[in-house]
Amino acid sequence: MQQPAAGDRRTAVPSPYLPRTSLAAGSYHTHRIIEDPEWSLAAVPHLTELCLQHIVHNFGKNPILDRLLPEHQRKVLDRLSTGLPLAVTANLISDEDYWKRCCTERWQVCDISNYGDSWKRMFFERHLENILKCFIPNTTDPNQVLELIPLCKDYVRKLEVDQFLPPVKVDQKEERDDLSDTVSDFGPSGVSVHHYDLGVLITALPHLEELHLTYGVKDCGMNFEWNLFNFTYQDCNNLAAAVKMCHNLKVFKLTRSKVDDDKTRLLVHNLLDHPCLVELNLSHNLIRDQGARAVGKLINRSRLEILDLCNNQICHLGAQALAQALAENSTLTSLNLRLNCVEDEGGEAIGRALLTNTTLKSIHLGSNNLSETTATLFSQVLAQNTALTSINFSCNPLGLGGGKQLLEGLVDNKALTEFDLRLAEVGQETEYRIHQIVWANWEAARLGSLQHPHANLL
Predict the structure, then answer these.
(1) pTM for the complete prediction?
(2) In the chain, helix, strand, coil percent, each to 5?
(3) What DSSP designation does 375 have?
(4) Position 375 pLDDT exceeds 80
(5) Which domains does the chain have, with CATH numbers?
(6) Rg for the chain, CA atoms, rounded
(7) How far is CA 135 from CA 166, 193, 196, 211, 271, in A?
(8) Using an 8 Å Cβ cutoff, are 162 and 177 in contact?
(9) 157 contact partners, CB below 8 Å, separation of at least 6
(10) With 50 as the cut, is the pLDDT of residue 309 above it?
(11) What distance in Å separates the CA atoms of residue 282 and residue 298, rounded to the nearest whole number?
């Protein structure tokens, strides 16, 4: 019987119908040929495919990409592991689909609209943020950050770090109550509790435009100690010097970090005449009147457009200092003083400033213990100021008289489109009539924007 040719995938099996012969006698063993219906030449990979597989497998050692044809580059990028060293991929791979895989495999929630619609930017910003959140001074190797700088510096435009870990304490036998506003820069054992110095990093990021920081520890649970939330004077000094050198910085937010008057003055000193800063957020801190005075100087020594001092301890003296700056300012468009205690003396000062200011569009004075006296002055503001579009007086005891005063001032006002009077005790009827006027202004502004869609661009 004819034997299968070399390379033939057909299988020879003994036939049950033919007699077996003894191999020892030198006779041939009889077989039956069965065809393999699934075998074809297509099962043999093309040489190109074998080469691409080799490139992908050895990409970490020999990253060949630019020399490939576009269709071959696509196949390699689709198969590359997202675990390759950043030293290999950072400045070589710009393909957004690859960085999308890197992001989605690492984080469950990925919204690239917050990152300029760039997956690569999202990856490097969040990767750097995670390193900073977990950095422990005197324990973590600083090279983790330093070695990342040349890889990420062209892609990082915003950093949001909501946690800074302090050094690990050597001695925990002694404990101290740090409820006071002035806290030592040293822990109970005398060990420095300064946090990671951002100076080297943010001054090496040429495209950094936004910096959002909170000095504290998240999810500390039963390990809570006040020292975990100690933004030291040295921390502030390091940060202020770094921000001063960050010439492209537009947005600076330092919140929930126990920033007091001394630290505020230090920050402001380094922000005076900053060439690009347009938004400053120091909300949820410990700023009092002295700190507010310093911020007042900053208002007219910078290009600030948005200032948020919500939930501090600013009283009427601080509000008067801010009002004095506001009366001369021509850049600020939004001021938030919610949850302070400026009272009527501070509220009236701000109202008088708004009689001359022509650029502020939004003012938030909620929860400041304001009464009818402030409402009376703001009645004049509403009658004369044509720049303000949003006022918030919520949670202030303005009273029925205050409500009537505000309503009178609104009669001829065509600019105000938002007016929050919740829990201001102005009376249901007055609040409804004010709402009707503000709603009419809003509708007119909306129709005007539809008729002149490019008006805001002129």
Answers:
(1) 0.85
(2) 40, 10, 50
(3) H
(4) yes
(5) 370-458 (3.80.10.10)
(6) 34
(7) 9, 13, 7, 17, 27
(8) no
(9) 116, 121, 125, 207, 208, 209, 210
(10) yes
(11) 13
